[in-house]
Amino acid sequence: MANHSTARWEAFQYALVDSMNKPEFKYKPSPTLEKFMKYTDILIPASEKERVLGTKQTDQDTVYLNILNKQSISTGSARAYNHSGSKNDSTRVEASFSTISAGFTYSLKESDRVFWNQAQMVAAQLRSAIIAIHSSIETDLLATLNTNKSQVVQSSTPKSGSWDSTNYIFQVLNADYDYFLQKLKGFMREQYYKNPPYEVIFDELLYQKAEQIISQGPGNSENLAWQGMGVDALASQELSADDGYLGMGYSFTPGSIGILPWIPKLNRQGFGDTFSNGGFYYNIPDPMGTGLVFAIHEYASGADNDGTSGETQDVDIEVEVSVDYAPVIAPMSTSNESPVYKFGVLQ
Fold first, then answer.
1. From CA 66, how far away is CA 50, in angstroms rounded?
2. Which of 66, 89, 110, 116 is most buried, judging by how many CB atoms fall within 10 Å of its CB?
3. What is the pLDDT of residue 153?
4. What is the tally of structural domains in the chain?
């Protein structure tokens, strides 16, 4: 039963030190969220973020992102006095916001009956809620990369490997497994992204292989470490390889993905009180260091907690942690083209 019944004040009760509690609070890494957040300030200038915060007043308000297109212009072989051309266009995409929340309850008197203080107990619940939010966001962002991977390549027969035009995956041949980093960089150059570094998310197997390759430096009989130059990679424990592949990942250029975060105005400004009608609205920066800011809402209600963790006359505090976020992948005027590429090493 979730009531701290085993931690009541009795003889010889001990609380473990923080280092012993860390394994309990281990969490799934969020490399995809880290990559999306890394270049948000480049992809979406601070002035645009402020404009969004000023115009998006509610969950239902729509936000659009706009770019100027690369114009398709024909070349000629001579000059003309009456030359003419076509006008350019722009592309607009809607920022698709998702709301994710996690809630928990604590009572004002529950810490009176156990050997932790209330701050320690609430901190554990808050951290648990944020871990759950991170996990869900990571799952969603990986799905976003897969949904928005490029279906368009400069050549359907790349020199660096092969192109699966059905599932839209760049395939590194199994024979090139030891050189898959070079093949990946070559493929990105073939897409006209000629300037590394390339941002990469690997599954665990390919990340381990990349570590092995990078460790094969000049002191080894065969130096493979040169391949690692220009690849900024993280490992995802959630990403798994499709059938027929040893390992998989996603590659994109710096500044081509980002996140547009949002929380409601009352949370940004602060409003109310936990024990007043309507409760308390405030915000906290993500304690896990991503740069997100979470909206917090909490309110109090009377409760009989004698059978659980508190007293007959008690007060429950209901807490909700939430954030709205819109993943942004640089829009392109060519239909189904994206700066994100999915790749894999064939079995």
1. 16
2. 110
3. 96
4. 1
Q: How far is CA 325 from CA 51, 95, 137, 306, in A?
A: 15, 9, 9, 40
- Alpha carbons 199 and 91: distance in angstroms, whole number: 25
Q: Which residues of the chain have pLDDT under 70?
A: 1-21, 42-55, 217-221, 223-227
Q: What share of the chain is helix, strand, coil (3-state, %, to 5)?
A: 30, 30, 40
The domain of 142 spans 31-69+89-347
* Contact yes or no for 168/343 (Cβ under 8 A): no
pLDDT of residue 190: 96
Kindly state whether residue 146 falls inside one of the protein's structural domains: yes
- Intra-chain end-to-end CA distance of the chain, in Å: 47
Q: Is residue 17 part of a domain?
A: no
Cβ–Cβ under 8 Å, residues 298 and 101:
no
What is the pLDDT at residue 160?
Answer: 95
pLDDT of amino acid 75: 81
Domain presence at residue 20: no
Residue 14 lies in a domain: no
Residue 167, pLDDT score = 97
Q: Degrees (nearest 5) of the Cα angle 172, 177, 180?
A: 60
Name the residue among 173, 174, 177 with its Cα closest to residue 212: 177
What is the gyration radius of the CA atoms in the chain, in angstroms? 26
CB atoms under 10 Å from CB of 33, counted, come to 24
The count of other CB atoms within 10 Å of the CB of residue 164 is: 17
* Long-range residue pairs from 168-176, CB within 8 A, at least 24 positions apart, any chain: 168/342, 169/242, 169/248, 169/342, 169/343, 169/344, 170/341, 170/342, 170/343, 170/344, 171/343, 171/344, 171/345, 171/346, 172/343, 172/344, 172/345, 172/346, 173/346, 174/246, 174/345, 174/346, 174/347, 176/345
pLDDT of residue 3: 54
Taking Cα atoms as reference points, which of 339, 306, 347, 321 lies closest to residue 102?
321
